[in-house]
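Sequence in, structure out. Go.
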Amino acid sequence: WRARHVLDVISLGPDTATGLGVGWAGTVTGLLLLVSALVAVSTALVGPVAFFGLLVAALAERIVDTRRHGVLLPAAALAGIAVLVGGQTLFQHALGNATALGVVIEFVGGLVFLLLLVLGSRK
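Output:
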């Protein structure tokens, strides 16, 4: 959360970020190490739901219609909570635990990933 303004500057590209005073290589390396550590810890604690972060980030970006990290990070957190709680409630009460929520998240996340790849290649 504290790096949200730096993330906005980094998203402009390496030349622009360097021109605005952000140390590109050090900041990107530090953020990648932080993200990989957080993913490792969450996978160890929760289990391998690989596409959940991608699914929530894409959903939050579509909902708030901005790329500003100050708005996008809380929206992604709320979307993640809503998807997990809503999905688990749906599977427990409406479907009687017919399948695991992780399986559905992996399937839908994989489809969203492929969709984002296809739409990104068209640009």
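Check: The helical segments are 4-10, 14-19, 24-46, 52-64, 69-94, 101-122. Residues 48-123 form one domain.
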